[in-house]
Write a structure and sequence with these properties.
This protein has about 550 residues and is an alpha/beta fold. Helices cover about 25% and strands about 25% of the residues. The structure holds adenosine-5'-triphosphate and magnesium ion (MG) (2 copies). Belongs to the class-I aminoacyl-tRNA synthetase family.
Length: about 550
């Protein structure tokens, strides 16, 4: 969707424009390049780009790369690709690390004003003296160092005179503040580590909470939109802007993060799935990453319709994964050609069909979208049907093929089962049928009716194909065991790793129509009675396609 539903952020922006507080709207999407983007990020991307656009504003893509240890250019490149694929175009591209010099200068401004000091306490000591929600923290013994001494020590921190953890620079605010984030937060730490952008130029790095407001101010961001876990940081955000005397004043606003049932949305946890080999990479079609969704066959349009429906509010909520499925079906319904695929083949010989003959039957490509036209599919004496569409001893209400019963072959004829051929162990290997030429599809035959319609593929020209069938990676533990998996903490004793779904991937071999021999990665189809499938970009080979299940056809989901 190219707009956002009515929401509190738009109301704020409307007011800000009306009052003259801002002249134009500038937002940013600020990922840390420490992993691939996931569906939660899609919401943040959509909000930032779409809201700015609704007010004729602009959006920056900024890599928040202030932590050298976990960041990598592979992630930088994947993030750019994913944002573009979603259909968004940034006005400016920035790296927070390009501002390290300015951030350093602004820290000196703080020191000179007596608003920052070098602390020699260890990280453990600093943590232990922070206090609690009910107890104030304790001042550091180094808190009252002179400006001169602080300037000297900070310069020597930069020059590499100290080891990691030996010293930090802290903001000097209030160790008794009811907001723990204001109890002299650390703003610089020593880290002798190479950075993907700045190399070995720096051995001190700014902390995220200090760096982020400066990045926003440097770029002239007007509305800094983030998720509600940063709400308690807002006072420090404003403190940094004011005390460092930044000429431009961005404001932070928080919206609720996107949480989905049976879904992990944390780069750290997704990385664990990759590193442990539970999935075959960040773009495994089971991953909730943008690249995984893309490889699976989900479209940007479906993702955007989904986040639109999820809405923009401050409330915490978990959205049913089935809602995403709903929007995928909605988007593919009219776009994907409908063809036949047999995933578990059983050979059928039509004994009264002339040997060696093949005819071409006309089939519509999408019964709901006539513009997609028609194709021709071969029919002959031997076809494959789905193994589950035949039963030797069916229960009542089974209307598919069984001895003596007649069914319709989609786009073709009625066939009637006469014989069952078994191997030595008694497994059904082939069934023999007769067809009635009068019943050809489209001929207007009304002589008699059948209750079941099944799909098929002509055997001699069928294209062998692999089908990869997916279920969510995480079991529905809330339904199964009443367990609430807290996405951030992973529960008390058990984590999401204890609830992996052993059936999340099933690989089967079958056949598709001959017209699908030369499909390309990302081509999408609806396979009659099965669901929507996408050609896999990693495993498909010329003439031997591999199809990923995007989503099944059935849904119990109601909006
Ligand atoms: P993760 O915990 O997965 O690493 P993050 O919040 O640390 O996510 P960043 O790269 O720092 O990831 O996030 C970039 C932006 O995306 C931030 O503004 C963040 O608020 C937003 N974001 C991250 N996860 C979600 C989510 N589930 N829903 C909405 N926005 C999100
Ligand atoms: Mg982060
Ligand atoms: Mg995070």
């Amino acid at each position: 969707s190219n707009s956002t539903p009515p929401n509190f952020i738009k109301n704020i922006i409307t007011e800000d424009l009306k009052s003259g507080k801002v002249k134009e709207i500038v937002t940013r999407f600020p990922p840390e390049p420490n992993g691939y983007l996931h569906i939660g990020h899609a919401k943040a991307i959509w909000i930032n780009f779409t809201i700015a656009d609704e007010f004729g504003g602009r959006t920056h893509l900024r890599f928040d790369d202030t932590n050298p240890v976990k960041e990598d250019v592979e992630y930088v490149n994947s993030i750019k690709e994913d944002v573009k694929w979603l259909g968004f175009d940034w006005e400016e591209l920035h790296f927070a690390s390009d501002y390290f010099e300015e951030m350093y200068e602004r820290a000196i401004v703080l020191i000179k004003k007596g608003k920052a000091y070098v602390d020699d306490q260890s990280p453990d000591e600093i943590r232990a003296t922070r206090g609690t929600l009910t107890e104030p923290g304790q001042n550091s013994p180094y808190r009252d160092r002179s400006v001169e001494e602080n300037l000297d020590l900070f310069a020597r921190m930069r020059a590499g005179e100290f080891k990691d953890g030996e010293k930090v620079l802290r903001a000097k605010i209030d160790m008794a503040s009811p907001n723990i984030n204001l109890r002299d937060p650390v703003i610089y730490r020593i880290l002798h580590a190479s950075h993907h952008n700045t190399g070995d130029k720096w051995c001190i790095y700014p902390m995220y909470t200090y760096a982020h407001p400066l990045e926003d101010a440097i770029e002239g961001i007007t509305h800094s939109l983030c998720t509600t876990e940063f709400e308690d940081q807002r006072p420090f955000y404003d403190w940094v802007i004011e005390e460092t005397e930044m000429p431009s004043v961005p404001r932070q606003y928080e919206f609720g993060r996107l949480n989905l049932t049976q879904t992990v949305t944390s780069k750290r946890k997704l990385k664990l799935l990759v590193d442990e080999g539970i999935v075959d990479g960040w773009d495994d079609p089971r991953m909730p990453t943008i690249s995984g969704l893309r490889r699976r066959g989900v479209t940007p349009e479906a993702i955007k319709a989904f986040v639109f429906e999820a809405g923009i509010s401050k409330a915490y909520g978990e959205i049913d994964l089935k809602m995403l499925d709903h929007f995928i079906r909605e988007d593919l319904k009219l776009k994907a050609p409908r063809t036949m695929a047999v995933l578990d083949p059983l050979k059928v010989v039509i004994t009264n069909y002339p040997e060696g003959e093949t005819e071409l039957l006309e089939a519509e490509n999408n019964s709901e979208n006539p513009e997609m036209g028609h194709r021709q599919i071969p029919f002959s004496r031997e076809i494959y049907i789905e193994r589950e569409d035949f039963m030797e001893n069916p229960p009542s209400k089974y209307f598919r093929l069984f001895p003596g019963n007649e069914v319709r072959l989609k786009h073709a004829y009625f066939i009637k089962c006469n014989d069952v051929i078994k191997d030595e162990e008694g497994n059904v290997v082939e069934i023999h049928c007769t067809y009635d030429p009068e019943t050809k599809s489209g001929s207007g035959f009304t002589g008699r009716k059948v209750k079941g319609t099944i799909h098929w593929v002509e055997a001699s020209q069928a294209v062998p194909a692999e089908f990869r069938l997916y279920e969510p990676l995480i079991r529905d533990v809330q339904v199964e065991e009443g367990v609430q998996l807290d996405d951030e903490e992973g529960g008390e004793e058990k984590t999401f790793m204890d609830y992996l779904n052993p059936n999340s991937l099933k690989v089967v071999q079958g056949f598709v129509e001959p017209g699908l021999k030369d499909v390309k990665p990302q081509d999408k189809f609806q396979f009659f009675r099965h669901g929507y499938f996408n050609v896999d970009s990693k495993y498909s080979a010329p003439g031997r396609p591999v199809f990923n299940l995007v989503v099944s056809l059935k849904s119990s989901f109601q909006l």
